[in-house]
Amino acid sequence: MIAKGEGTVITVSSMAALKPGLLGGAPYSAAKAASRNLMGDINAELNDLGIRACTIVPAEVDTPILDNRPLIPDEESRATMMHPRDIADAILLCAVMPQRTVVEEIVLKPTTNRNVDRDIDIARREGE
Fold first, then answer.
1. N or C: which end of the chain has fewer CB within 10 A?
2. How many domains does the chain have?
3. CB 106 within 8 A of CB 15
4. What is the pLDDT of residue 24?
5. Cβ neighbours of 126 (radius 10 Å)
């Protein structure tokens, strides 16, 4: 990318990078924050060389990984969540912007926030 004088790096982080919590766990939150920080470092160090970096920061997305949670979201809850296609569209936006433009970060949340209090209570009890 440096030799070519342009390039785009896009990573998918998580809302856990911005708001660490019990649902993802400390290692997950730390890894997602590190990914986000790396993109910031790339922009700080390489924008002048034509390299741009973007972090996609999604909240809950209806994917099979949610089936691993202590309290598996029901269909009604999943209906309010974002879909993988929503994240893909954000990635595409970053990729197709003119080279003169960098989208440093996109934070995505569902329009309707679901109450995760029960999820957190269960996660807290499992951690004891």
1. C
2. 1
3. no
4. 72
5. 9
